[in-house]
Amino acid sequence: MRVAIAGAGIGGLTAALALLARGHDVIVLERAGALAEVGAGVQLSPNAMHVLAALGLAPALDASATRPLSLDMRWGGSGRVIFSIPAGTAIEQRHGAPYLNILRADLQSALVSALMERGPGVLRLGAEVTAVLSGEGLVRAELADGEGVEADLLIGADGLHSRVRSAVVAPTPPRFTGMTAWRALIPAARLAHPPPRSAIVWVGPGRHAVTYFVAGGALLNFVGVVEARGDPAQREDWAAQGDVSALRSAFADWAPPVADAVAAADSAACWPLFDRDPPGRWTKGRVALLGDACHPMPPFLAQGGAMAIEDAWVLGDAISRGTGSIETRLQDYESRRRIRTARMLRGARRNARLFHLSPPPVRWAVYTALSVAAGLAPAFIASRQDWIYGCDVTLSAD
Ligand SMILES: Cc1cc2nc3c(=O)[nH]c(=O)nc-3n(C[C@H](O)[C@H](O)[C@H](O)COP(=O)(O)OP(=O)(O)OC[C@H]3O[C@@H](n4cnc5c(N)ncnc54)[C@H](O)[C@@H]3O)c2cc1C
What we know:
alpha/beta, D-Amino Acid Oxidase, Chain A, domain 2, binds flavin-adenine dinucleotide
């Protein structure tokens, strides 16, 4: 099949590799003239790593990533541990794939290098999809320069503000979550109080922070999420580069590893967080949606990219087997992904509430209960993540 993919983000690049591996003729249409990765670090959990390993990327990723010792939740103010789930070799033994923390640029470079090697000429930069036309037996992506690209199938992997999405469902704006995320990379050598080498969520009223090391431990990836009022679309100061002094003051009175990290940050990117309720349909005719174009979620389970990666594999599998029409195969893809991604969205939204609990008695009661449960039954706390990390879509596919 000739497959056109709109978007060369994590989802589009993974889909291109998954489709090439199954012998399809692929073209990736990316709006940007050059692939410059924004946004610091990304966590790759075992469920995402199963797919990336099946595509032969594990050695390249492992070489540049860092393996967190544990996945912790801590009080933001005191730094006390609420619970800690062993990661490192323990999580790999439990789920058959590692948990990695990696620079987005390193992930992107592993995906792009593999694509260049396996499908030279597949990636077209400066190719913005502006409209989608469905014809008899084919679909056509109209590009901004007036050219049209015809294919048997078009995949919309063009992110939160997807153009392809409006060929599948009625266009609606994404939902502002009421939160902004700050992101910074801080050289580890500058930290007077480095946090433990774990992936840590530090929780506090109306805000939380996430820290983990990337680039073999040389850099600390910092994400700070704060509740923000107003409609971001109407604010002009939502430029990608934020005011680092506002970030510092948001976390200045937190535990030393957090306060120290923001004090050492030279600059920070800042942008509002959006999501969407699950769409009524994921596919229409010969068009299918994938990743953030379909089901953007807040990053509070660190699973948005992982869901795009899983989607990519399942889509490649669904369209490559069976004898049904393309439409039927795309519906198979949708039905295999719908429940899991909707559950992930609910879980991410629930975590926003858990991380930001405000009234002191409620915070104390909830976090103490979690802490006691983790002390009495650590295996139970770890097993509560199994539905996320224990899923291997490559097993159910072949
Ligand atoms: C603060 C934060 C932290 C996060 N942390 C994690 C994490 O730790 N782990 C995790 O799994 N996920 C994480 N996520 C989520 C993750 O970043 C996204 O879910 C993921 O990037 C989605 O990938 P995608 O390929 O669907 O879309 P995108 O990455 O948005 O890629 C879309 C691509 O399409 C291109 N494009 C857009 N429009 C067009 C067009 N009209 N024509 C052609 N090309 C187009 C864009 O230029 C872009 O290259 C985080 C998100 C945030 C905000």
